[in-house]
Amino acid sequence: MIDLHSHILPALCDGSQNLETSLEMARLAVADGITHLAGTPHIHPGVYDNSTDNIAKTLRMLQVELYSQDIALRLVMGADVHMVFGVLERLQDGQIPTLHGSRYFLLEPSHYLPVPQFLRQIEAFLNAGYMPVITHPERLRWCEDNYQDFITAARMGAWLQVTAAAISG
Q1: How much is the average pLDDT of 15-35?
Q2: In sequence order, what DSSP letters do the residues of 66-98 get, joined into one string?
Q3: What is the pLDDT of residue 11?
């Protein structure tokens, strides 16, 4: 499975800007041997006001287009959730989707400031049965000064997802 942060979900204001681009990106993914793709638009209140319902609706509409264009790509749902107050409650009541209905979800901390009670929040997700996948920590300006917190989060059971450029340069 590949995560393209919703680059083929035009209706969610996060990624591809039109259906034609979405379909071309899907064709390229299939040409690269990809059979399943997770649509993971951002959820950040006031910036990207996405929810399980509108993500699911958009994915269904795009999946129909893929079938009608004979593009053999299966879409699954997720989101890249900004780490703000209320995420756990919104996960529990279904407003925020997990990755393909699993216990895993993409979690994006603030890019600029350390998250208050970062490790306590990670612990709360884990204790509630969720598996946070912390997205691209290498992009966070505060990561280097708080590197040990990310190591601790991983030891607690959270996952870390880095971008390919972080590895390849």
Answers
A1: 92
A2: HHHTT---EEEE--EEE--TTHHHHHHTTSS--
A3: 46
Q: What is the pTM of this model?
A: 0.88
pLDDT computed for residue 32 by the predictor: 96
Instruction: Provide the terminal-to-terminal Cα distance of the chain, rounded to the nearest Å.
Output: 23
Scanning 10-168, the segments in alpha helix (DSSP H) are: 19-31, 52-68, 87-92, 118-127, 147-156, 164-168
pLDDT at 2 over 70: no
Which residues 6+ apart lie within 8 Å of 122 measured at CB? Answer: 132, 153, 156, 158
Instruction: Please answer whether residues 115 and 84 qualify as being in contact, where contact means their C-beta atoms are separated by less than 8 angstroms.
Output: no
* Helix/strand/coil for 62: helix
86: left (phi over 0), alpha (psi -120 to 50) or beta: left
Q: CB-based contacts of 151: which residues, under 8 Å, 6+ apart?
A: none
